Structures are given as C-alpha cells and as structure tokens.
Amino acid sequence: MTVLVASDLDRTLIYSTAALALTMPDPVAPRLLCVEVHESKPLSYMTETAAALLAELTEDPSVVFVPTTTRTRKQYQRIRFPGRPARYAICANGGQLLVDGVPDRDWRRQVAARLAEECAPLEEVHDHLLATADPAWLRKARVAEDLFAYLVVERALVPDEWLKALAEWAGARGWTVSLQGRKIYAVPRPLTKSAALHEVARRTGATTTLAAGDSLLDADLLLAADAGWRPGHGELADARWTAPTVTALAEAGVLAGEEIVRAFTREAGRLGRLDA
C-alpha cells in the first residue's frame, strides 16, 4: 500500500512568528525548529516534536509526502523540511508540479490549456485589482508564476464590502478570491491543488490519500483526500467548514501543525498495519 500525504504549508504545517499562537506560559511553550530563512532572517517554524514526527513519516517507504502550497516554486524552495526530501511538490496552487525540484513541463502545458479555455485572462484580473485597491491599505501587488495574482495589504483597513465585491466580480469570470493573513489571492477556479494531487496519485500508484489545509483554497484538496484535517484557525475554521471525511481540530497555531503531523503518522501507521 502506498499512502500519499499532501499538506498545505503556511499556517498548516509551518508557521511564521505572527502565526505561532503561543498562548501558554513561556516556561511551557514548545521548543521550535526554524525550517525557513528569508533574507538572512528566520521566517517559518515547526515544533521540534512535529519535525521529529515528519522525519519519521518521510522515512517510511510506503509514504509519499507531497508539500502542497500556493507559494511559488522559489518561495517553496526556501523551506528545509526534516527527513527525506520530497520527490514531488505541488506549488502555485496546483499550477506547478515539481519532480525532484524541477517543474514538470507536460503538467504546466495541461494547466495553461485549461485556464485559457475556462476563465478570464490573468492580465484582466490583475488590472482590476490594481484599479480598485486603495493605496491607503495596499502594500504590494504581485503576479505568481504567470498563473494568479495577489495583494499584500493592511488587513484591518480593507473594507469587507470591497472583498465581497471583488469575490463577485472574480467569480463571474471563473476566478476565486481567498484572504490569508495579509494576502488577498485571486486564483483561476480550475487552478486547484486537488487536480495536481490526482496526478501525483496516478504517477505513484497511491491507494490512499491524506491531506491537511486551513484556507478556502485547501477545501478541494481536503475533499479529494480519503481523510483530511484542518486546524482550529484560518478561513475554513472561521467559516466552520467541514466534511464527512475531514476532522476539525481544536488546536490552533503551531500546536495545530504538530497535531496534524501526529494524525498523519497515526493514520499512515494504521493503514500499514491493515495492509500487513
């Protein structure tokens, strides 16, 4: 039996300082391992316990660990996970499939063809974002991998009415809007993590898939898996979103990340025993 374990990264498996949510007294706070450095500064963390569990999980020959993220390839490759390097990684919300760190050209061509057929062009959406965003709260505007666009904003200043209007405008053109921390993403609806997950499952012959994620962009990934977990924070938790095969965790912050890796390890071990 081959078990495919696909996990979203930011605020699911790894956490910035702002997202750690260390609400316990300092003397009992978990020890942390830095897994990402950016511009010579530590950026993302796991608990040491989560790191040890992930290393154990990736050494299991029956497990295929697939980091699954909206990050670009360059942003993803800053991360140094413990354990065996992942052969497959899904970046750009499914737009890039990396095999041993190299983008799969056939997959990218398939994605490009589908986007051209099913939704409005990126240029139109990016221009709309720039035209409607208020400079009072807009900090950066970016295009990722020539696939989708996102804004970095001062979240407290962004009107909810603007977000709602943007979602309606984008939806009519085949795009989805997602708010994650200080970033507002506009992503083509056909650009999904689940499509890339199915491709990796096909290539590896995986018989079971496990997944985790915290945002609306992860909902399709969770629904595509045989079993999934979401933390007690994020867009999905705020919307009280769940599904019959998805476990809603009570833990939030970096301790939720630890519990997710523990759940992956426990379920993969159970499946291995059943197979034996």
UniProtKB/TrEMBL annotation:
MF (Gene Ontology): hydrolase activity
Keywords: Hydrolase
Superkingdom to which the source organism belongs: Bacteria
Keyword Hydrolase: yes
Name under which the protein is recorded: HAD family hydrolase
